[in-house]
Amino acid sequence: MDQHDRSGEQSWLQWDQGHPYSKRYGDRYFDRDGLAESNYVFLRHNDLPARWANRRAFTIGELGFGTGLNACLTLERWRQTARPDACLDYISVESHPLGADDMRRALAQWPQLGRTADALASACQQLQPGFNLRVLESGRVRLLVLCGDVDRMLEALDAQVDAWYLDGFAPARNPDMWSETVCRLLAARTRSGGSFATYTAAGWVRRNLQAAGYDVCKAPGFGRKRDMLHGHLAKAVDAPAQGDAAAKPWFQRPKPAATDHAVVIGAGLAGSATARALAERGLDVTVYDRPKPDVAPPSRLPALIVRPYPERAANLRGRFYDAAFGHAAHRLKQAAGWHPTGVGVIAHRGRLSGHVLDAAELTQAVGTPLQAPGQWLPNAGWLHPTRWTAAWLDHPRIRCLNQPAPDRLAGVPTVLATGAAVTDWDSIAPVSRARGQMSELAPPDGKPLPTAALAGGGLCVPSTGTAWVGSSHQRGQTQATPDADEAASYVTNWLERLGWPGSVDVLTHMAAVRAGTPDRMPQVGPLPDAAWWQSQYADIRHGRPGARFPIGRVVEQRWLHRGHGSRGATAALLCGEIIAAAITGAPLPVDRETWNALHPGRSLIQALRRA
Ligand SMILES: Cc1cc2nc3c(=O)[nH]c(=O)nc-3n(C[C@H](O)[C@H](O)[C@H](O)COP(=O)(O)OP(=O)(O)OC[C@H]3O[C@@H](n4cnc5c(N)ncnc54)[C@H](O)[C@@H]3O)c2cc1C
Question: Which residue ranges does the record assign to the MnmC-like methyltransferase domain (predicted)?
Fold first, then answer.
């Protein structure tokens, strides 16, 4: 992905009589009558809206997101014609996404799209390379924008698409978008009976689509174009899954559950995010929690920071948290308990990367004098977790019960979101427990509270007239009694950073227990059937190719969502979406590699490899 040029516009984008034009491909994004063409080519020749009219879930895939015109029109038509309880997944691949302002400008010529165009552009404000999930239409539409090269993105995608819109730049100018490999990947991600439509009728594109298994027809093209292509896939391609899932059958996702009901155990951040995502996908969800938990849940602390971690490595884990933050920052807009104050990350142990502000600039951004340089994250903020969970669980399909879950929940998908509580599954999916504490300070006279949250070796969050500072990290400890001595080191640190005297009033302390994992990724996915894995995968240490092993057996309808360590406020929402998608058979909102890295069976596989 290229970056914006210094004027804030994309350097490859030009405006030609009000129409966006790509210098890179020497082609317009759409012709003069773009909206009518989009309707004719993509909706009409995929037989839409008729095909989605009676479906509770429908998935559209698109190559070439461009200005968002097809997505915008589809959302408009879907809103008017879909069942009131339906949900739509709209996946789009784009190697060079436009900025939100350019999208708005391009779509402004159709005032009738106004509200949808604006919502779409806002959703696309902070797209990152890779998978970007955004939720629209009060939770009924999931937009998944895959930013990157088309073949890599399609390989990483785990989805069964009902209708494809093939809308890349012209085949002669952008042949990679229409290659044989791409057509095979499209077919491998198309449901039986799924369809495609495209404005082009190029002979080699037709042949590639036919070779991939599609029945292809010609139809009169739109406007001055002579012909176009459309067609369908009579039977889903019965080929081994593409990409790395083929090499790792143990992580393949289980078949979706045929059920209208799900259970979530635990109403912290993880449980609430999962329950809401399941409810929005049409399931009735019962959430169980305990009024008096055995281990103090950190989701009941007064303030948690939601932010990206640019100071950490840009590896798979870094990319996962970037994607999780992008999703959370968009989803939390208008949510109860969300405070989009921005976050200043103060330099700590030399860890800072990207654009660093000097102390004076950081002071300006956070509204209180600081002596150290740092980073400014304007889209980040902090969450009041209990206010957020209460509001998030307030959904007509969610029922909350303050009681232990029944022992037998056969046949019902059950998600364990029990944080640091001890479970029967700890030997399969191990977590480490660490007590942490934060304290509330009254600001001394004449010293302003920061207007933004602060991070970097702890946290400082301005609440109503006071500041919550933290936090400690006591590995292996699980008691929740507040401890004034434990507070001393982080309180002193924050008093120094804020330039406050040592005599400030410490009003109260709160402690809770985090659950972390050895590789610092949460555990999100189905629970492996450990005995079966140990017998079937005993040979993996001999290096037999993954494809020779059977697909991993899982404990029926048991799912895990925990192990967020110190980042649950940033990642729980995206992880809830991953579980809901996997349970209902919807497109996974993360790439296959990330799904594998989150899988609760990963420790078992590592142990078998080492055995
Ligand atoms: C001091 C401190 C500061 C932190 N700061 C940040 C921060 O700034 N940003 C950030 O992102 N993260 C932060 N974290 C981490 C964050 O709070 C956690 O990652 C997150 O709250 C974990 O949420 P959870 O839902 O997975 O678990 P929990 O919050 O532990 O929730 C689990 C829930 O399950 C329930 N439960 C357990 N067992 C059962 C059972 N058998 N039946 C029914 N219910 C059950 C519990 O009662 C609880 O409600 C911090 C943590 C600590 C301790």
Answer: 131-232
